[in-house]
Write a structure and sequence with these properties.
By secondary structure, the protein is mostly helical. The chain is 85% helix and 0% strand. It is built from five helices and no strands. The chain is elongated and about 50 Å long.
Length: 108
């Protein structure tokens, strides 16, 4: 199995697992953003994880920008949108998949 296939599989997990938790919450509360962020930051532990994800997303955006300058990757809007709509759990492995595809193509 190639590394890019592993990244693709992790991308699938990165969308399935977070939405497995979010969809039932949305079914119960709807798209109530104030309540969503209120519950996320209701405890120090939740705030820890929330801030960790925000910082990780910012680092991912910087990494995407830097790797684009180095490798001239295509369709980099996909992992950015994926990160904003789902989170780093999807955006990072999706970006790594795209990056690995480019690296694999260059080595063949």
């Amino acid at each position: 199995m190639k590394l890019r296939h592993a990244y693709f599989g992790l991308s699938v997990l990165g969308i399935v697992l977070p939405y497995w938790q979010l969809v039932p919450w949305l079914m119960q509360h709807g798209l109530h953003l104030r309540l969503l962020f209120g519950e996320l930051f209701a405890s120090r532990v939740g705030a820890f994880f929330g801030m960790d994800v925000v910082v990780s997303a910012i680092v991912l955006f910087v990494f995407i920008y830097a790797e684009d300058a180095r490798l001239a990757l295509k369709h980099l809007w996909l992992p950015v949108i994926a990160t904003l709509l789902v989170g780093v759990s999807l955006g990072l492995p999706l970006f790594l998949y795209q990056r690995q595809r480019k690296l694999d193509d260059a080595s063949e």
